[in-house]
Amino acid sequence: MEKFLRTKGTIQHLAPMEEPPQDTFVPEPTPRSRQLLGPYFDLETPGGPLHAQCTAEVGRRLAEGLPIPVYQIASLGLLREALKAEQPEQPNPEDPRDLPEAVRSAPWKHLCGMADNWAGLSSADRSRLVTALAKLGFWQTIADLVPPDGSGSSLDALRLAYFRHNAAAQLAPDAKSAAAAFVRARRVMETIARCKDFDPAVRYGAAAHMIVLCAKGDKDKALADMRHWLKAADEVADQAGKEIAPLHVSIYWRGVAFIPFFEGNHAEVKRQLELAEKYAMEAVAAADADTRLLALENVHPVLETSGRSAKARGDIEGAEQFYRRMTEWDPLDSKAHVRLADFLMGESRVPEARDAYRTAARLGAPYASYAHCQAARCSIRLEQAEQAHGALVASASLDRQALSPLILLRDICTTEAVAPLKEWAVNELATRMREAR
Predict the structure, then answer these.
(1) Exposure letters 129-154 (e unless 16+ CB within 10 A, then b)
(2) What is the pLDDT of residues 182-224, one digit of tens each?
(3) Do 360 and 367 form a contact (C-beta atoms < 8 A)?
(4) Which residues, at least 6 apart from 260, have a Cβ–Cβ distance to it below 8 Å?
(5) 71-102 tens-digit pLDDT
């Protein structure tokens, strides 16, 4: 599949983009991001994809003084960048306190109050606040609040350190710095997994997460490290003195499945991911109001991982079923539709792929630019280049670092009627390339 090319670095110094010639393409609808991702601006809007529902739940729990769990679907910096690009005229805070007081919801005001009173917060409240900031994608705020060399051995102190290192990775100026921050975060997770004073469920989850974190770099070393943490997780479960909850067992099996995947044992990967799904569904069935969203959210990555696994072992029909189930389980999440579309594109089912990409693009951030560009590629393959113009303009407009949509526009605008659009694409491409140097 063709790559989606983007420049690296910042776009802060780019001149405002010139308006494309309006009579040369049919504009695409505005993405629904602001409607579906409201909790990222108010911590309370109901509905939307599961990750947004979880964000609203974070707002409720923060305001009520309740513990805040760490949800699996993280909010990367790309999300807020995409939201700002879609509607730059709307409030787009880089820190929650940038949002004008007049438009702050009650939970948002509570969040800002806690941030303003950082020095007076307990370690537990600091941990809750930083967990909420991470869910919202405010990584710079975390870096500003949490000292880089924080100390303490409590779970709250270690959680602060973990998120501080993740913030450093998100904000890193280069891959080397990001990798170093990732290593520091992994060390914190290792400390949590090893500390016998913590609840077995916490240590069990940390050990399972270590398996995933170790699945990088040299294959032999990664396998040795993953097997070590598999043994550690099993020992925690054996010594827990109580049954581990289905949700944690599901997360465990999804992590453990990396080991046979690295070994090339696809049959064992399949068996373990089936266990991950079995326990995921048990967790959903047993969930109460307090754990419902955690259980529902967990099914999303289980289906996604199972789809990738099925594709890797050549089970094309099975892979499609998992990806379609993702879109049914979390229908308002653009990523689910992108995963399905990418699969269909890889199978040369271009009309179906275009439909799925278009759905993803209309749902919005952070995949709208990529999805528009891919939908345009589908139109070009189907020899319907005129349907690609609007999608490519939308893709380029939604991501000022994107190069692929401009390259494609330059190449497909071959008639006099769309010559102004080609000129616009060439000029904007040159602007972005100059800034990237």
Answers:
(1) bbbbbbbbbbbbbbbebbeeeeeeee
(2) 999 999 999 999 999 999 999 999 999 999 999 887 888 999 9
(3) yes
(4) 266, 268, 269, 272
(5) 998 887 789 989 988 888 899 999 999 999 99
